[in-house]
Amino acid sequence: MSQHAVELAQGARQLGVALSEQQQQSLLGYMALLNKWNKAYNLTAVRDPNEMVSRHLLDSLSIVPFIEGQRWLDVGSGGGMPGVMLAIMFPEREFTLLDSNGKKTRFLTQVKNELGLGNLQVVNSRVEAFEPGQPFDGITSRAFASLADFTQLTRHLGTEQTRWLAMKGVYPDEELAALPVDFKLESSAQLQVPGCVGSRHLLILRRMDQG
Question: Is 83 labeled as ligand-binding?
């Protein structure tokens, strides 16, 4: 078992996330692709593969317990965090990964094909121009934008039933104060990510019925 496989298995256990052999192989396969394509495509500032397990894989897996509903959008997906990890963990659910950067969506399409992720759709579009056939049950973002921008830019993609999951570092009091009036904080969680120094928070937002 490689050092990265051991670190991933131990970290997932600490997070309370059960990994099958296939899921573990897919997660490590994703990391290998990220490392390979990063040199040309600048997908992540993390250059050291030894940091990728904690800062990308485990960080993304830390929100697994909060995923409910069938249809999810990962907005500003970039290199595919957390969307690719969630698609690997929930093969029975659908994940749309959206990014306006063509290089990044080309990489995500390669990941989808090489890992055989039939439940993953890649969309190259600006979020405000994206018009899916139906609203999403959940929308995630990791380092995409401020909470105000995240909710304003995606409000047309959800309903009062949708949950917006924003992954943040330190608890963003000022961003919460600037939320649009029809959005509220439903809950928040401090995430303990094995191997990650620094604060990690998940904020779950909802849109209120203005009627």
Answer: no
The mean-pLDDT minimum among 32-46, 155-169, 195-209 falls in 32-46
> How many Cβ atoms from other residues are within 10 Å of residue 193's Cβ?
20
- Residue 84 is labelled as binding a ligand: no
Which residues, 6+ apart, have CB-to-CB distance to 75 below 8 Å?
A: 98, 127, 139, 140, 141, 144, 150, 153, 154, 157
- Segment 115-139, tens digit of pLDDT: 999 999 999 999 999 999 999 999 9
The set of residues, in sequence order, having a beta carbon less than 8 Å from that of 50 and lying 6+ positions away, is 3, 4
Q: Which whole-number Å values give the CA distances from 68 to 71, 125, 182, 186, in the listed order?
A: 9, 25, 22, 14
Query: At residue 193, does pLDDT exceed 80?
Result: yes
pLDDT-derived band of residue 71, with 50, 70 and 90 as boundaries? very high
**Rounded Cα distance, 45 and 171, in Å:** 22
- Measured from the Cβ of residue 113, the count of other Cβ atoms closer than 10 Å reads 11
Consult the annotation and say whether 76 binds a ligand: yes
Partnered with residue 95 across adjacent β-strands are 72, 120
Cβ-Cβ contacts under 8 Å for 12 (sequence gap 6 or more): 18, 19, 24, 58, 61
Asked whether residue 81 is marked as a ligand-binding residue, the answer is yes
